[in-house]
DNA sequence: CTTGAAAGCCGGTGGTA
DNA sequence: TACCACCGGCTTTCAAG
């Protein structure tokens, strides 16, 4: 599944809406020197292509009571059980990311918990029963950077 | 910096807008059985409290050419250089997260790169010069789960 | 991609409890 | 303080060109 070629207008639009999902489309239109309808059509196109997958409000985890963020490397007892474990992890709301990775771990997940005690209970009561051989936990004291990937459309290089 | 007490209306609003930043406030209002102005005011309150930190469109990294996602554990040469390294990492757009963690690493970051070659060049040309003693890279083949933390307001337990 | 127009929303004001 | 009703101006969305 390769990626699609985006033109300059797509790129401008993505840059503007990526960091502010509630920006009025007309404002985007003015910034891009096109009509509002054009923005509407492009955003629909980008959505249909699966490039835009939705929008989110960004919520400060600490401010709603999630004081502990942790990454956990998982060793499975049965390396065949990826899919069933992934499905089980889906049902644990504290798990916000789940990766299938190279290296020593079979899986690698990110968790938000209310505090260290809550984190321990998630690991002990919810994760271990899934058939894990062992886990390694990495607690984050502080998330210094949290942002989206850069939006840089690789254009065919033009000679100057 | 503890967290604020949210009531049921705040919680309902957060749940609705967290997963869809462009939902009309009036639709939220109808779902919550209050007026549109009430939603408007609550969202402003939540923003002022710092609970809402903005909004984002969710973009599929692969669809815009980022085929490699990796986590990197960093050992610093000089453990005092957190702040300057963090600042330097800010200037590297491929770095999307940066954590200060417990355990063996001094820092832990997440990176999006176009491909393995691009990832290597980021590590070699941009990260190593910052004064790192060593790095450990964990490449993600597949991100099976990617979502926000659960919004569960701890209410004072009410007897039934 | 544009214009144009209808439908509907946003964000403010003032009033009520 | 928190909610509601109301209104002007702007946005969104869908034609058609």
Q: How is this structure best described in words?
A:
Two copies of one chain form a homodimer. Chain A is of the alpha+beta class and 160 residues long. The first copy, chain A, has five helices and five strands; from the N terminus they run αααββαββαβ. Chain A has a four-stranded antiparallel sheet. In chain A, helix 2 packs across helix 3. Chain A starts with 7 loop residues before the first helix and ends in a 14-residue tail after the last strand. Chains A and B meet through helix 1, strand 1, helix 4, strand 3 and strand 4 of A and helix 1, strand 1, helix 4, strand 3 and strand 4 of B. Strand 1 of chain A pairs antiparallel with strand 1 of chain B. The structure holds a DNA duplex (17 and 17 nucleotides). Chains A, B: GO terms for molecular function: sequence-specific DNA binding.
Task: Report a brief summary of the structure.
Two copies of one chain form a homodimer. The first copy, chain A, is 33% helix and 29% strand.
Q: What fraction, in percent, of the residue positions of chain A are helical?
A: 25-40%
The residue-averaged pLDDT of chain A reads: 92
Shape of chain A: elongated
N-to-C CA distance of chain A:
32 Å
Helix-strand pattern of chain A:
HHHEEHEEHE
Q: Find the count of extended strands of chain A (DSSP E, 2+ residues).
A: 5
Number of helices of chain A: 5
Poorly predicted runs of chain A:
156-160
From the structure provided, what is the oligomeric state, counting identical versus distinct chains? homodimer
Major β-sheet profile of chain A = 4 strands, antiparallel
How would you classify the helix and strand content of chain A by structural class? alpha+beta
Most extensive interface? A-B, 69 and 69 residues
Tell me the fraction of residues in β-strands of chain A, as a range.
25-35%
Cross-sheet strand order for the largest sheet of chain A: 3-4-2-5
Give me the Rg of chain A, rounded: 21 Å
